[in-house]
Specification:
By secondary structure, the chain is mostly helical. It is built from 15 helices and 3 strands. α2 packs antiparallel against α13, α5 packs antiparallel against α14 and α12 crosses α13.
Amino acid sequence: MQGRRNVAKSSYIDVGLLFSTFVLIIIGLIMIYSTSAYEAKVEIGDSFFYFKKQLFATALGIVALIFTAKFDYRRYKSMGRLALIVAGVSMFLILTPLAYSANGATRWVKILGISIQPAEIVKIAIIIFLSGFITRRISIMDSNKWTPAATAVAPAIFSFLILIMTSNLSSAIIVMGIAFVMLYCVTKSPKQYLILAGIVLVFATLFVLAVANEDKLGWDFGYRGDRVRAWLNPEGYDSDEGYQTLQSLYAIGSGGIMGKGIGESVQKLGFIPEAQNDMIFSIICEELGLAGAIFVMALFFVLIWRCMFIAINSRDLFGKLLVIGVMAHFAIQVILNIAVVTNSIPNTGISLPFISYGGTSIVFLMAEIGIVINVGKKIDV
């Protein structure tokens, strides 16, 4: 009898997690086609071009999800260093002829005709590595003040590499954000992390103030300064840095409560460049309205909530940390994307998980969902 009960517990599948994930993926595919069809037809001659590529990547993502859902998550504990090595090699491929650029940024490598974004590999590698690293040192996490600092070394190095090699600030922030959340969740006295967050906020505020007074100070903050100025005054930079933000806000405002209807967006007709990428949420607002936007955000809430449920009920610390890392990744990326689209923060170029166009992203996001499912299969409910 006891044996049958254990078998039942070890086969738990979180329906809410799967439902929210696949509904988001379906919405993403629909919106990628709706958003990109005009541009793809004009520039490539095939209105289904981006949709077909995303559909193929989604199929690969389902394979990745099935694999990681079946692969015992406890085996990742000894694979942390290997994960970092793979992530490091993928990053340095940016310096080889395999790398290629798009929209002025070199963030991808092409292997056997398949485009890969190394930053996505880094995110999952950091989650795996930190989960094992913290688990092995949890007994001294609070007593040894240098242990948290040592834990942050790997994510700090990779964040720096992402920033200098790909100019991808958003991914660098996400990697450090994942580490911060994982450390915060296992520390008995999290005051030091709250102080650190306060310090970061102060420096960010000082940076914004310095950019706003750049002329008086006689400093030049380069293109990052341009983005901050466009954030503060998008109308004043409507022909360059503020253009995309303004068009995004026009799309959001014109959608109203119920939206114009799928396929009826005006802003996607060349006004928002490559709207199927980072700014796809603005087209959701335009075509599906406030109601559609709230529905999408509710799905993300359910997904993150179910991750939290599995983390809380996981039988072991390593499993908890894996799920916390994945949950942090999703939450940070969703918050940053929506904040950028609504001009709540400067434009950092960040995709909306499961919805924005991006092959590497969807494959690794679904692999992370598979890891969460795998941990969830063994929880006590």
